[in-house]
Structure formats: structure tokens, C-alpha cells
Design a protein that fits this description.
- The protein has 11 helices and 9 strands.
- By secondary structure, the protein is α/β, with parallel strands linked by helices.
- The strands form 2 sheets. It has a 7-stranded mixed sheet, with helices on both faces.
- The two termini are about 35 Å apart.
């Protein structure tokens, strides 16, 4: 069958993301600078606090919004290193299935999960959230942190979310987004970095969930957290650049510093937003 342009874009975006996150440079950077167990935006109470503390707080806030408790069946789409899954398992008693496209990240997730004695509660699968290998209506909660922006077909992602959730199940996720109504050519350096032509917006996600019959759809806006987080990551990178250069290539470090600054600038200019999206499947 001939692939449509949408399918081609989807394939290209997935391939780009997998190749990037599987690289030695990226794996070392995210493991050592971004927060250790997490690859997502933090919620900062102090703008200069540790990235790992703010990242853990994001998980806590999202778990509170969704009411995660003992036995909750969670599907984590784009789970990265699995930090959120382990917190949900250890702190809330949830059973979490991690789905992530990077075998390198998944291997680190499995190792840390074993080391923390949580491998009976947390499982890890390599795959795409555009074709989720999970049965219909089998999940209590779909969870995702800052992963959907990498999709070349976000409508398909929302279709999959609706498909796998049981009636009354919930979705809770975060994503770096463009603000509604933005001429996205004004954030071209960011689009180039994620190898896509657009970013999602709050309206895209909330309208899309409502069209799929979700109720109680809400976007908890925490836009100020995005530039704070990327500033903190850039500061940590600069502070440890010399020691990092022994294990991460100089071109990667240079490109990362520039890329992080684009996110900071976009957030401060009011072009980007970030927050928690929550909805209930009818």
C-alpha cells in the first residue's frame, strides 16, 4: 500500500526521535543532566531548585489530578527512563506498563526498575504510541509526560488513548505546546529541532479529547514552568560542560546549549506553554 504524506511524516518523526534518544550523546546527557530518572519538565517551587526535585513534583501533581491509587492500571506512553512509573508503583501502588520507542532508554528503565525491586509492578515494552500494543478498554489511566510533541500524527495518538481506556478511565499528560493561535513559523528553530512542522496546542488537545467523547476536559496551565525548566537544564549543562565533554561530543553540547536557549526564549516570549491535560473517557 502506498504511504500517505501523513504516514510518511509519522514514520519520519518516529525514526528521528528513536535515533536521537538512542544515541550515546543523548543518553548520557539526559541521564546525567536532565534529572537522572526523568526526561520531562519539572514543577518548580523555587526557580533554582534541583531538576530532580522539580521533576518528581510533576509526577506527584499529575498523580493527584488523576487520583492514582493501589491497583490502578497505568499505561505510560513515552515513558523514557521510567522514573514516573516507579514513583507511581512504589508510592501509589499502581501497576504500570511503560511503552517507549527507544531500546536504549528502555534498557536503562528495566535495569533501574529491577534495582529498585519494582519489576513485578512495572513492565517495559518497546513500541510506538501511534500503534499501542494494548487491548481495547483495558487501561484505567493513560499517562504521558512531554512525549506527544514528537509524534507525526497526534490525532492518531488521541485515537489510541481513547481506544485503550476503559469507560470511566482517565488520561493525564503534559506536553510542551505552542500557544493557541500562534504563527508557528515564529518558533521554527524549535520545530527544526524536533523535526516536525507543527507543535500541538492546548486547544488541539482539549478539542480533540472532547470530540472523542471525553468529559471533564481541562488544561491546567503552568506555562511559567517551561522556561524555568529549560533554563535550569541549560545552567546545569554549562556548569558541568568540561567534565561532560569527556563523554559527550562537543558538537552535541554546543547544539544542546543553543536548543535549550530557544525553548527558554520561546517560553519567556509567551509563544510556548506547558501544563497538565486531564480528561475522563465516557
Amino acid at each position: 500500500m502506498t504511504r500517505t504524506p501523513e504516514h510518511t511524516a509519522e514514520h519520519t518523526a518516529e525514526h528521528t526521535a528513536r535515533s536521537y534518544y538512542d544515541s550515546d550523546d543523548a543518553d548520557t546527557f539526559y541521564a546525567r543532566v536532565w534529572g537522572g530518572e526523568d526526561i520531562h519538565v519539572g514543577v518548580y517551587e523555587d526557580p533554582d531548585e534541583l531538576i530532580s526535585v522539580a521533576s518528581a513534583r510533576t509526577v506527584t501533581r499529575m498523580a493527584q489530578v488523576a487520583g492514582v491509587g493501589p491497583g490502578t492500571r497505568v499505561l505510560d506512553l513515552g515513558a523514557g527512563y521510567g522514573g514516573a512509573a516507579r514513583r507511581l508503583a512504589a508510592g501509589h501502588g499502581a501497576a504500570v506498563h511503560c511503552l517507549n520507542l527507544s531500546p536504549v532508554e528502555n534498557a536503562r528503565n528495566e535495569r533501574m526498575t529491577r534495582e529498585q525491586g519494582l519489576d513485578e509492578q512495572v513492565t517495559v515494552t518497546t513500541g510506538s504510541y501511534e500503534a499501542v500494543p494494548v487491548e481495547d478498554s483495558s487501561v484505567d489511566l493513560v499517562w504521558s509526560q512531554d512525549a506527544f510533541l514528537h509524534s507525526g500524527d497526534r490525532d492518531r495518538v488521541l485515537d489510541e488513548v481513547a481506544r485503550v481506556l476503559r469507560p470511566g478511565g482517565q488520561v493525564v499528560f503534559t506536553d510542551p505546546m505552542a500557544v493557541d493561535g500562534l504563527d508557528q513559523s515564529s518558533i521554527q528553530p524549535i520545530l527544526d529541532r524536533i523535526a516536525l512542522s507543527t507543535m500541538g496546542t492546548p486547544g488541539f488537545y482539549t478539542d480533540g479529547l472532547e470530540r472523542r467523547g471525553f468529559t471533564g476536559v481541562r488544561f491546567h496551565d503552568h506555562a511559567g514552568q517551561l522556561p524555568t525548566h529549560y533554563r535550569r537544564v541549560r545552567e546545569e549543562l554549562v556548569a558541568h560542560e568540561e567534565e561532560l565533554s569527556s563523554s559527550i561530543s562537543r558538537p552535541y553540547l554546543t547544539a544542546m546549549k543553543a536548543g535549550l536557549q530557544h525553548w527558554v526564549d520561546g517560553g519567556r516570549a509567551g509563544k510556548l506553554t506547558w501544563g497538565i491535560v486531564h480528561a475522563v473517557r465516557s
